Each structure stands twice: as structure tokens, then as C-alpha cells.
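can u do me a favor
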């Protein structure tokens, strides 16, 4: 059974948590992935949760969820290729993302071991890309999709203000999101830009600084390469293959993946168990609404992972 332990207060709740174990996992094409295991690694009663972060982020993005869940869950987080401590690879695409998730599941879970998998932004797209894979279906008993979409990402984005939907806005948005320009150091201006583009207006300074540290640390080449993948994304078929119980979370102030995506996912998913649209929250839902995201993960564990373990 899942056991809830009161969270320990920390000076910076978004500071990266210290993993119990660090692994280097090799994907299907030889790409090397940095993987962390947090929590009671040797406790068979500790349910498994797997976290897949989004574009320009890293395992540090899940710091709040890791700190809470690792008290009574085995939490597995990994850096997407080219992000964090996972080196860049020549292969960039949704098939590579699916390969990587399968490799992480195989390296960290016993055969058939159930897990709840949460994906944010590109991490959610990773889940959709892997939905029909045997390695995914062998383990995934429930999924949480946070601030993500399956197609038309650039066309639906609201990052460029004032312009109406259409070719001009889509073209200009693609140039902004796919810029090769270096982000540089985290300055007051950089914080304002990042908050406008990715977070809700009520986001606290500590939240904005935490996201800026992570995003600005992403290598420029990886940021550009994966922006091209997202520009051409079409994973509508993957949504239809995602047959496990799935919860969807989005924010009304999300400019990168507006709620139109969440509603489309909820309508297309074979087994959508909930759609939560958070007023005033932007794209960075695990950072902006950490308690809600963690609570959704815990609910999925109790409802589906523990049920399977006890079957």
C-alpha cells in the first residue's frame, strides 16, 4: 500500500533531489541516458513512478514531485537525450523518444512490474510515441499527461501576441521557438521573457528562477534540434494507442500548449479518467502547481498500480 509521509521542509523546494541510485542506460541506437532512482529502491511494497520531462528541461524539473513521492514510492526520472546529463545524439525524433523510454523501463523495472508514468510537454509526447510499444505496455498501468499535445503545436501556440491564427502567426511562432540564439545567463530580462512565454502571471519568483535555471542550462544545439521535431509533430495515432487509464492536466494561461490540446487529448484518449484545467497556470504545471500534479500521480498509483500489484 502507498504510505504518505509528511514532506520535509527545504530551503529551496525546486533544488534537485539527491538520488538513491544513478544509472547509465543505453537506448536502442546506442544513445546514452542519465537515469536517477529516488526513494526506497529495495522496498518491494514501494510503487514505481516514472517521470519524463519536457523540451529544454531535465530531471531537476520534477524536484517537487520527487521530494514528495520518494518518501513512499520508487521514483525513476531520466534526462531526455541531449538534455541534462544525457549526451546529444544524431537521432532526433519521436521514435527515438519511444526507444529511450522503453530502455529506461527495461533497465529499472522487473518484467511486468507496474508503473505510473507521468510526462510533461515533450515527456507527454514521449508517452504517446511509445504507447503501442511492447516495453511500454508491459509496465504502464496509468499515465498522467501534463501540458502537452499531439499535433499542431506551433499553429495553436499563443507565444506570439496580438496576431490572429493563420500562416503569419504560425511562421513567426516557429521562428521564435526554433531560434538558434543562445539564451545566455539568467538576467532579470530573461526571467521576464521566460515567465511570459512559459508560466502563469501568478508564478512566484522562486518558481520562475527554478525554471530559468533549468531551461537556460539546455544546450543550444539540443534546444534547436528538438524544436524542429516539435514543429512537425503528429502523434494523433499515439493518443489512440494509449489505452491505459490516463489523466490530463493543463493550465488556462499556457501559451505553448493551450488548453485546446488538453481537451483534444481527453476527447481522443480511449480511457481518459480526468481532465483538469487549472485557472491562471501556465505551461510549467509540475512547478507551478506541484501539489496538484503530485496528488494526481498518487491517485493513479492508488487506483491502478496498487490494484494490479494486489491482483
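np, heres the sequence
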Amino acid at each position: 500500500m502507498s504510505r504518505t509521509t509528511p514532506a520535509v521542509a527545504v530551503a529551496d523546494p525546486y533544488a534537485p533531489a539527491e538520488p538513491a541510485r544513478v544509472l547509465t542506460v543505453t537506448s536502442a541506437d546506442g544513445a546514452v541516458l542519465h537515469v536517477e532512482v529516488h526513494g526506497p529502491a529495495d522496498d518491494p511494497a514501494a510503487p514505481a513512478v516514472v517521470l519524463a520531462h519536457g523540451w529544454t528541461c531535465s530531471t531537476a524539473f520534477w524536484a517537487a514531485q520527487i521530494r514528495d513521492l520518494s518518501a513512499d514510492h520508487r521514483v525513476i526520472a531520466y534526462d531526455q537525450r541531449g538534455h541534462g546529463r544525457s549526451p546529444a545524439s544524431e537521432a532526433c525524433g519521436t521514435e527515438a523518444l519511444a526507444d529511450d523510454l522503453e530502455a529506461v523501463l527495461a533497465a529499472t523495472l522487473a518484467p511486468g512490474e507496474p508503473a505510473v508514468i507521468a510526462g510533461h510537454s515533450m515527456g507527454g509526447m514521449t508517452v504517446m510515441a511509445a504507447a503501442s510499444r511492447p516495453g511500454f505496455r508491459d509496465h504502464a498501468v496509468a499515465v498522467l499527461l501534463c501540458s502537452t499535445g499531439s499535433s499542431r503545436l506551433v499553429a495553436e501556440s499563443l507565444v506570439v501576441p496580438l496576431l490572429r491564427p493563420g500562416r503569419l502567426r504560425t511562421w513567426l511562432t516557429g521562428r521564435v521557438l526554433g531560434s538558434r540564439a543562445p539564451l545566455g545567463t539568467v538576467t532579470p530580462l530573461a526571467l521576464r521573457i521566460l515567465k511570459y512565454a512559459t508560466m502563469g502571471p501568478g508564478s512566484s519568483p522562486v518558481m520562475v528562477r527554478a525554471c530559468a535555471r533549468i531551461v537556460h542550462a539546455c544546450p543550444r544545439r539540443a534546444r534547436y534540434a528538438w524544436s524542429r521535431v516539435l514543429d512537425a509533430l503528429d502523434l494523433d495515432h499515439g493518443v489512440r494507442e494509449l489505452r491505459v487509464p490516463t489523466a490530463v492536466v493543463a493550465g488556462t494561461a499556457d501559451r505553448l500548449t493551450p488548453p485546446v490540446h488538453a481537451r483534444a487529448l481527453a476527447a481522443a484518449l480511449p480511457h481518459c479518467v480526468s481532465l483538469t484545467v487549472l485557472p491562471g497556470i501556465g505551461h510549467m504545471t509540475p512547478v507551478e502547481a506541484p501539489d496538484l500534479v503530485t496528488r494526481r500521480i498518487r491517485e493513479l498509483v492508488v487506483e491502478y498500480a496498487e490494484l494490479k500489484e494486489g491482483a
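Residues 54 and 122 are 4 Å apart (CA to CA). hope that helps!!
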